[in-house]
Design a protein that fits this description.
Blueprint lengths: L3 H40 L1 H4 L4 E2 L2 E5 L4 E10 L6 E12 L8 E19 L2 E2 L2 H6 L14 E18 L4 E15 L5 E10 L5 E9 L4 E12 L2 H9 L4 E15 L2 E19 L5 E16 L4 E10 L2 E6 L5 H6 L4 H8 L6 H13 L8 E16 L6 E16 L5 E10 L3 E9 L2 E15 L4 H8 L3 E15 L2 E15 L13 H8 L5 E5 L2 E4 L2 E4 L1 H14 L4 H6 L10 E6 L8 H16 L5 E7 L1 H21 L9 H9 L5 H11 L7 H8 L2 H25 L6 E3 L3 E2 L7 E6 L6 H10 L9 H12 L2
Parallel strand pairs: 5-7, 15-17, 16-17, 28-29, 28-30
Antiparallel strand pairs: 1-3, 2-3, 3-4, 4-5, 5-6, 7-8, 8-9, 9-10, 10-11, 11-12, 12-13, 13-14, 14-15, 14-16, 17-18, 18-19, 19-20, 20-21, 21-22, 22-23, 23-24, 23-25, 25-26, 27-31, 28-31
Helix pairs in contact: 12-18, 13-16, 13-17, 15-16
Length: 785
């Protein structure tokens, strides 16, 4: 009979065998489960998920609910292209909740994922997945239905691409980190923390958001650190014929709203665009600014609140060019913006630039109806340029430094005051002061003043319309407007000091108006044109009192001759010559006029009488304009030889005159330039001619011109053997006040009276009696020479 101990020993052995067998079965099950799981995933991936899936290794623990997949790859629908891949994917499932029909994934971690979002017209590459797993909305929810939760989601070091072939667009972000509380079937909100970097260029974005999945409300806190906006270029190509943009985004914003309504947006914080540049290929910028920044106290379109601490634009630059048929804006975006309209009208195209513009329009459309407030609105150190190539000669003007300042732009105030000040390049300045009722823009006061603007700056227009350039004259325009209920009361005062008509220039570009005769009618005593121009009526239909201008004209005709003898006898020149004299040079000319030769003779006589005396001659060259004239002349000369003269025939003086007078708008010459340049991005005769004439040729011709002027000036000094008393200083390249290159002659001692008189006679200064009110002005303007 077995003892109790023996019986217990046998039972223990059986238990151990059973336990060992169970453990062995479990171990074999666990070992086999992972390969089985991998097999099941790859066999039933399409029926269950809708896509082909591959994995390199799977680990499943059914007891803890832990699942780990390595090297997961999900392919595009019916394609071998990758839709999504990850180095690893791990999840924890609450196993005990399965018995209550609750699928609760308590955590999901994805390491090094890479995903691709591909858009074809209005269809995205994930739409099939959404459609396959869309809930059946026809079924009413019951307590018996499956409950699903996906919590504690973590994405580490991800990379996500967006591809759109129609535009086309190819962009990606990397270093993507996302941590979220995830989705719970019984909770409407989820929190998400995120961070990522720009895949193209530099920059980082990080922040957090709270989303309400039931009502689609959101709260967002985002910080943007110098984020490269290179992505915009891919959309810009669809809107323009050429051109590229670069900029960086900086922001620190807090916002709330609802995805169903743009107007629900409510935000505060800081937003800035830095180092914005828009240019044509490798050419100079067309538009740029250093920084555009918005400091927002509260922006809420729905509540009609637009409260800005400040809106500041720093160092903006823009260049507007006018061509024969288009301007640089239309050349880029199509005539009338047709490229933009074409993209906007295509329902299959998404363009980020257009969508952002629509968003801004929707957000700002209620601005004027709102209780708007801007603590400080400013534009600092702007530079705006205008170039007109539609004339026979290029006209250019600039406004720099351009500044706008307005403090407390507040609808609650009685008045909003704004000031504008700028220099005018190359010479001049203007200022504007505006005081407006923020509740009613038809009530305002406006004062403006344009000063010290040389009339020869506008010679391209004078030549085009009259054939007569001006070589002297300064413009001033002052106005005061008082507008009440859109009714204008204004005084506009135009003053032109010392206008002088130069010799008529014959060219196919020019019209003809008898300017000397016209000037005799409109010019007043003291060689001044002075008109009061009252403008009255409604803002939508202002009236100019033409009878005032006619009365001034008649007064000049009938009154001025009576005072002519008196004006001719007055000896005041209104100009402080001091020790400086000058000789102007017409473009491309190197010969002295007879009056200039007489003046040089006086200087020669002075040096002969004073052997110890020396004069300094400074050549002030308007090199930009001189080289432009040389460039166009040489291009026209090539056209002349190509179409009107054999290469072996001598180039006579008559030929030179014909080439000089040939219009750069001549259709034959235009066609010739187009054939030679063969570049549709070139819109001006100057840019096309630059392809035809090498810069070395222009520089050589310019050097010869400078030398010829020096030789012409020194000719009489050498003849009288006083050339050693003339010292030529190094040439300065300048933009002269009166628009012509000139020799500035200085003498360290006191100039004799006869030299002063000879200089005045050469320049045909008006020695008539000026009105006292203009004397100080004329002295200031003369000093600019």
């Amino acid at each position: 009979m077995q003892t109790f101990a023996a019986i217990m020993k046998k039972r223990q052995k059986k238990v151990l065998v059973i336990l060992g067998s169970i453990l062995l079965v479990v171990a074999v099950f666990l070992i086999c489960l992972s390969p089985i799981a991998k097999w099941l995933i790859q066999k039933y991936d399409v029926p269950i998920v809708g896509r082909e899936i591959t994995v390199s290794w799977v680990y499943v623990n059914p007891f803890t609910g832990f699942v780990h997949l390595s090297n997961v790859v999900v392919f595009e629908d019916k394609s071998d292209s990758v839709f999504f891949k990850a180095k690893s994917l791990s999840a924890n499932l609450a196993m005990y909740k399965l018995f209550s029909k609750t699928y609760d994934i308590t955590s999901l971690t994805i390491n090094k994922p890479t995903g691709f979002v591909i858009q074809e017209q209005q269809v995205y590459n994930f739409f099939d997945l959404i459609e396959k797993h869309r809930a059946d909305e026809s079924k009413k929810p019951t307590d018996e239905q499956v409950k699903f939760s996906l919590r504690n989601i973590t994405i580490n070091n991800g990379e996500f691409h967006y591809v759109e072939d129609l535009t086309p667009v190819n962009y990606f972000i990397n270093n993507v980190y996302i941590k979220s509380t995830g989705y719970r079937y019984d909770v409407d909100t989820m929190d998400v923390d995120f961070a990522f970097s720009s895949g193209i260029g530099s920059g980082d974005i990080e922040g957090s958001t709270t989303l309400n999945l039931a009502n689609q409300n959101y709260a967002l806190d985002v910080r943007v650190d110098t984020f490269d906006l290179e992505l915009i270029n891919q959309y810009l190509k669809d809107l323009t014929n050429y051109g590229s943009m670069s900029a960086f985004l900086v922001a620190d914003l807090q916002a709330t709203g609802n995805f169903k309504s743009i107007d629900s947006l409510s935000t505060r914080g800081y937003l800035a665009i830095k180092n914005f540049r828009f240019k044509v290929d490798n050419a100079d910028d067309l538009v740029s600014f250093k920084k555009l920044e918005f400091a927002v106290n509260l922006l809420s379109p729905k509540k009609l609140i637009y409260d800005f601490d400040s809106i500041i634009l720093s160092e903006p630059y823009a260049r507007y060019e006018l061509y024969d048929h288009l301007d640089n804006v239309q050349a880029m975006f199509g005539a009338g913006g047709e490229k933009v309209a074409e993209v906007n009208a295509d329902p299959n195209k998404f363009n980020l630039i257009i969508e952002v513009a629509k968003l801004v329009e929707k957000v700002s459309r209620n601005f004027l109806r709102s209780q708007y407030k801007v603590g400080r609105f400013a534009v600092y150190n702007g530079n705006f340029e205008f170039e007109d190539y539609s004339l026979g000669e290029k006209f250019e003007i600039g406004f720099s430094p351009f500044n706008i300042l307005a403090d407390s732009v507040d609808k609650a105030q009685n008045r909003v005051n704004l000031t504008v000040r700028s220099g005018i390049d190359p010479y001049g300045e203007f200022a504007v002061a505006l005081s407006i009722d923020p509740e009613d823009s038809s009530y305002f006061d406006l004062n403006y003043q344009f000063q010290k603007i040389p009339l020869p700056q506008f010679n391209p227009y004078f030549l085009t319309f009259t054939s007569y350039p001006l070589d002297r004259g300064t413009l001033e325009f002052i106005g005061n407007w008082k507008v009440r209920a859109s009714q204008i009361e204004s005084v506009n005062h135009l003053i032109i000091l010392d206008p002088r008509i130069a010799k008529r220039k014959l060219s196919g570009d020019n019209g003809w108006i008898p300017m000397p005769l016209a000037m005799a009618f409109i010019r007043e005593r003291g060689n001044v044109i002075d008109y009061e121009i009252p403008i009255k009526g409604d803002l939508s239909d202002p009236k100019f009192n033409v009878w005032d201008a006619i009365f001034d004209l008649l007064k000049n005709i009938f009154i001025k001759p009576v005072t002519t003898p008196y004006r001719m006898d007055v000896k005041t020149t209104e100009r402080e010559l001091e020790n400086s004299l000058s000789i102007n040079w017409e473009h491309q000319k190197s010969g002295l006029t007879k009056t200039e030769e007489k003046f040089v003779d006086k200087i020669v006589d002075f040096l002969k009488e004073n052997p110890e005396a020396k004069i300094n001659v400074q050549s002030n060259s308007y090199a930009i304009k001189e080289k432009e004239h040389i460039l166009l002349y040489e291009a026209k000369k090539k056209f002349f030889f190509a179409h009107h003269k054999a290469a072996d025939e001598p180039y006579a003086e008559d030929d030179s005159v014909m080439v000089e007078r040939l219009s750069i708008k001549d259709q034959g010459f235009v066609n010739y330039l187009n054939e030679q340049a063969k570049d549709t991005t070139l819109h001006t005769a100057q840019s096309k001619a630059a392809r035809l004439v090498d810069a070395s040729v222009i520089n050589a011709k310019y050097g010869k011109l400078e030398k010829a002027r020096e030789v012409a000036f020194l000719e009489k000094f050498k003849a009288e053997k006083v050339a050693t008393q003339v010292v030529f200083l190094k040439t300065k390249e300048v933009i002269p006040f009166y628009g012509y290159s000139f020799f500035e002659i200085t003498y360290p001692g006191k100039l004799p009276d006869y030299l002063r008189e000879a200089f005045e006679e050469m320049n045909e200064f008006n020695k008539k009696a000026p009105r006292e009110a203009y004397r100080a002005k004329r002295k200031k303007n003369a000093a600019k020479e």
